[in-house]
Specification:
Layout lengths: L4 H15 L4 E7 L5 H14 L3 E6 L11 H13 L2 H10 L18 H17 L3 E6 L6 H12 L6 E8 L8 H10 L4 E5 L5 H12 L5 H11 L3 H7 L16 H11 L4 H13 L3 E2 H10 L4 H13 L3 E4 L3 E4 L3 H7 L8 H12 L5 H17 L3 H17 L3 H18 L7 H18 L2 H14 L6 H17 L8 H11 L6 H16 L3 H18 L2 H14 L6 H15 L2 H17 L3 H17 L3 H17 L3 H12 L5 H18 L2 H14 L11 H11 L3 H11 L7 H25 L2 H19 L15 H16 L6 H14 L2 H17 L4 H18 L2 H13 L23 H11 L4 H8 L3 H15 L4 H10 L5 H4 L1
Parallel strand pairs: 1-4, 1-5, 2-3, 3-4
Antiparallel strand pairs: 6-8, 7-8
Helix pairs in contact: 1-2, 4-5, 5-6, 8-9, 9-10, 12-14, 12-15, 13-16, 16-17, 17-18, 18-19, 19-20, 20-21, 21-22, 22-23, 22-24, 23-24, 24-25, 24-26, 25-26, 26-27, 26-28, 27-28, 28-29, 29-30, 30-31, 30-32, 31-32, 32-33, 32-34, 34-35, 34-36, 35-36, 35-37, 36-37, 36-38, 38-39, 39-40, 40-41, 40-42, ...
Amino acid sequence: MAGRIEERGILGAAIQGAVDGRPGAVFVHGEAGVGKTRLVRAVCDEAAAKGVFVLWGRCVRFGAVDAPYVPLIGALEGWVESAEPHQLSEVLDAVPAAGELLPSLGGYASDSGVRLLSVVDALVMAIASHGPTVLVVDDVQWADLASRDALAYLVAGFRGQRLAVLATYRDEELASGDPLYTWLADLRRLPLVTDIRLDRLSWDETEQQLALLLGGSPYHRLVDEVVRRSDGNPYLSELLVQGVTSTAAGLPADLPAELTGALLAAWHRLSAPGREVMRVMAVAGRPTSIEDLREVAAAGGIGPEALTAALVEATSAGISVVHGPDRFWFRHPLLAEVLYATFVPGEAEPVHAAWAKTLASRSATGLDEVQRQGDLAQHYERARDLQACLEASLRAAELAKASRAPREEAVHLRRAVRIWPMVHSGDSAGRHRELDLWERVARADDLLGDGEASFAAWSRTLELVDERTDPLHACRLLRRWADSAWATGRTNGRPIAEAEHAVELSRAAPDSAEYADALAYLSWCQWWNNEPDIARRYGEDAVQAAHRSGSNAALGLAYAVRGNVDANGERSDPDTAAGLRYAQLTGDPELIWRTLVIRQNYLGRRGRIKDCVELTRDFLPFAIGAGALSVAVFAAGLLAHHLLMFGRLAEADGVIREGLSLAGMPNASAMVRLSAASLSVRRGDLDVAGMHLQRAKELMPDVENRAGLSAQTVLAEYLLATGGDGQALDLMSRTLAVLAADTRDADEMLVWGARAAADLMEAARDRGDSEDVLAVRAAYDDLLIVRRSMLPPAFEVGGSEDLIQPAMQALFTAEAARGAAQTSTSAAWEDAARRCDAAGLRWDEAVASWRWAQALFDEGAIRAVVARPLRSAYRFAVEVGARPLLHQVETLAAVGRISLGEPAAARVQPPAPFDSLTKREHEVLSHLVAGRTYGEIAKALFISEKTVSVHVSNLLHKTGTSSRREVAALAVRLDQSSTNLQD
């Protein structure tokens, strides 16, 4: 099931309430086909697998006029058929009158309503007494009055039974004044009743649905088409893709017969004039004003009175709905397509011509004018006026571009390239204009993130361009084609051959922007393929060529690439900064993003991740505003990754949601999914994490072998959370060399490899399996060998401001010590926690603090000492909602009988070693014993952290201790009677 996570949670909570003896009712409503029954069925199936009784009753339209309790009898009969013999016997013994209600027991539902109502209640309660029970009544809008009374009776009688009542109903079929409204309103007032409205699926949720139905990742264009035609109704979406495969670029022309029949059923019940008006409206293709509809209908001989009567009839029947003050359209947009198919060949052409004539007489501004021109193009095409269609399509595309409406621009451009050959057949002079048009299509698809459509369009441009007569244009197109091939996963390494060919194509114009760009691109590709010397030479040539060209775009790319190659040199900072500045002068979001990524690579190597966050946060709204949705997706993925590093889970969640709502290239969308998976793991939503990882692998099947996406560490995090420690270690060993061009990512993988190895060796030692310990050690040593073969060395610091690498090295050292079963690891974990704190890596700091507390506990430290890091991890876990970490912390606290609440500052009596302390030093000591940090002590005593540090230094000198931890432990040991100190 796609989406519905929140709704499933509500239903699951209601069922869990039944398990715990807290009854409740949930009413799920929405339009037909929105997935009410499927949602409830999925949740109930999960509950049934855990031993919950599920009684399922379905109401039938017109099927219960003379027979009361039909859905409830059906639900109870289903239980009778599946119940264990002893349970059935006990329930029937408890409710002797059951035989008068259930047909299988010889009864019939025609006895006194009051008496049978009590029988229904008694049977349901008797079943619930044997185990948690869910009663489902599906399509309650068709329920007979007796069944509604029985449901109300059950819900009103909630008092501790192990029972959940779930009901579904269609809300679009309820006429004004329907008695169901009053019944529902009365029930909703009860305290244990919840209401859920199911809306249509979003674009992203429809994409998930299609991936599940088709068994693979669908093309964005296919998703766009399904969403446009079903408007997110999951039932209609499912019917639309019957017989379609995941490799299909679009939907077949003909609609499935089952879908057509389902939609036409209500239309056939209209009068003849009503049916004809609906056909005329269907030709419009979108919601239309009453004025336009009246004008077009008049051209077909339908007068205003007949039109009004037809619209009233169709609206009353739930076929059409009012949009805004004066517009009409179909409740289900697919009905327009079905009705359009009822026209015989040629019959619709005059109707299209009438619509075109009407729309041509109107005028609009902004996006309304984009829509008008687009509608004109469609009607002209169907009326066979292709020249007018092409002109309207191009006008619509230009207007959409000016309005920053990239999706609309792409739609109109695609129509234009399709119509172009029909209008300009045999026109060789128009080849260059067609090439320019295809290039516009490719760029639009790039911005939208439709990778496959973009690749096809760039491929078409290469077919149209002539390398001999227009080598510079061919150079530009070849470079864009190669980029598209990499972004869509057609190649793992950067396309060196194409980059070299682009340089050759432009070599004859050494002062051109094309030549500079080609050199810069070749430098970039060589760097990614781990050829730094070659990359450095081409980067230098690119900067010189860019200056000769005078192009800001060329200068931006050339400086950025040269700075990237000169990773450890003096030019890296000024070059990457200059590249970004030149790119920003162009206003091109794609170029700005490319140079911004390179700038971030430099900042990342210097440990300046916070600067990366600020750059990306500023860029993201700019990219969305500019319509560059694909690069916005990549920016969202990268920003979320960095926010997760800093433990800012709530912020990362918001960014991920934004990224998931946009369509991006496969690699960009995969990065967002990876960040979403990491966030879900840290929150304990492993099923959701698995779904995101599956989607990432569908987008990029070889994702674990690709650099630049951080896939390896996310996969390792998920594997460790799901018990796949051995798989995680193997993954790190197999893929570490992939990151030879970015060893910082490789170092992070080294930490995860050490973590997996430590988990495995601890488990093997617990089992007494010495052979397994040796095997894990050997695998771990192989990982270290791979890293030693790479340059620079592991955890090399990128400068005095780099605090990230020391923190990573400290984490690695602590994990290695844990794996080696060193007798004392608390100092290593303390160092790791402090270095992570200094680097701002709050997530890693919290994990290290938990490990630090665990090590202290294993080493026999007193509770007050163990409590300090444990409380720090606890505060963080509670703050960000990290359930797994919270569980680990609470488990250790329970074992060690350690309170996780913040203790009051202890008043320490001055034993002999503390006789010489001043009053202020005593106050500082009491806070140290309570596990407070320097910042917390400063805040409590209204002094600076520097002053706190001075007092602590005096404490250490006067008591002969060497650390604040040691002086606190000494104070505790000298006053064992103080319960405050033992807290």
